[in-house]
Every structure is written in structure tokens, then in C-alpha cells.
Amino acid sequence: MESTPPVFYLIPGLGADERVFQFLHLRGEVHILRWLPPQTPTEPLAHYAARLAAAIPIKQACWLVGVSFGGVLALEVGRLRPLAQVVLISSLIGPEELPWLGRLARATGLYHLLPPQLLPRLPRVAQWFFGVRNGREYQLLRQILRDTDPAFTRWAIARLLQWPGQPAIPAIRIHGTTDRLLPAGAAASQYRLSGGHLIIISRATEISQILNSLVTEEASRLLAS
Predict the structure, then answer these.
(1) What CATH number does residue 66 fall under?
(2) At residue 87, what are phi and psi to the nearest 5 degrees?
(3) Number of domains in the chain
(4) Structural domain includes residue 83
(5) Whole-model pTM?
(6) What are the residue boundaries of the AB hydrolase-1 domain, all occurrences included (predicted)?
(7) CA-to-CA distance for 35 and 67, rounded, in angstroms?
């Protein structure tokens, strides 16, 4: 019996788009779940995730891959699509993995004072935080920051810092060992790659190999069962 090709749904990080996935080479059918405009400035994350999930048939087995804030959405969408296998890249499994500054902002509400336009105006500071090398990676980061919608950024930061993150669902994790934005994730990840927060770009070859291997292992397991 001929097996059907695997289906991937990819969710980019905060402010990013399909450009961060351009260096992946996945063996299967690939769909990008592009960000939707929030319906209101306070649209709940679960409600937003349900709108994203509408693009995935309920009975479709698939791989749901989320990067950074996209990983948070992947977990929320995964609750609504039980046949999806969730993979987190440079992301977090719950609010306890936020860095100390994020936990402080969560506790005090000071994130409301953060101007969303700050990082686009300081590309070299963003380069350090994201662990991006000079050359094509830096140029891509600058383009993404330039194109980021401030209103969406403000909504997403608030939703992330208010995210309860419970109950957790199973997820496979891939994380950079020198991630400055979400440093706690590396210790809890099955796959740790040398690099910073944007390993989806700098380690795209290795991530492609991991994702393709996961698909192969899952197919072998199903055939053996």
C-alpha cells in the first residue's frame, strides 16, 4: 500500500512570515499558517488559535511546526487538532520558561509600556538578541523587523505574557544552545543545536534533517503497529 506524503503546517514567529522557512527542505506537503489580524486588541489567544486551526482539517494527521511565538500558537492549535504532532523550534512549553525579564513584565504589566517599534529602530541590538550572523541572516532579520506590524506586535506580546500554558500537550522540541531570548528552552529540548534564537535560518539544514527523520520514524512505527 502506497503511503501518503506527510503534511506540514508551519507557523512563523512574532512579526515574521514565510521568509524564515525559505531554507528548509521538507519531504512532504508544506503549508504556511500565516498570521491573521487580531479581531480586537484583546482577542484571546485561544480564540485566535481556533481561527488559525480552521485551515487544518480536523481529521487530518499532520506535523504542526511553530517557531518562537508560533510555537505557542502551535500548542494552542494542537489542542484543537488531536491528530497533529507538534514540534516547537526556539519556543517555550509554558510561562515558567520565560526569561526573568519576561516574568517580571508578566507580573507587573509593564509590557504595556514597551514601544513595539523599538527593535526595528535598533537592528544591531536585535541582531545580538536573536543571535544572527552578518550577511544574509542579518539582512533577512532587518527586513522582517521593518515589515512587522506594531499593532500585531503589541497584541502578541500581551497574549504571550498572559498565556497560562496549561495543561501542556506533548511536543517535540528543537532549541539553540545560545538562545538569548528564551534560554531556558535548550535544557528541556530533545534536539539542541549550536546557535541562537533564529536557528530556523542558521541551522535550517539540520532542522530539515530532524523533521524529515521524525516523519520517517513515525511512518515506520505505524507500519510496524
Answers:
(1) 3.40.50.1820
(2) -125, 125
(3) 1
(4) yes
(5) 0.87
(6) 10-206
(7) 13
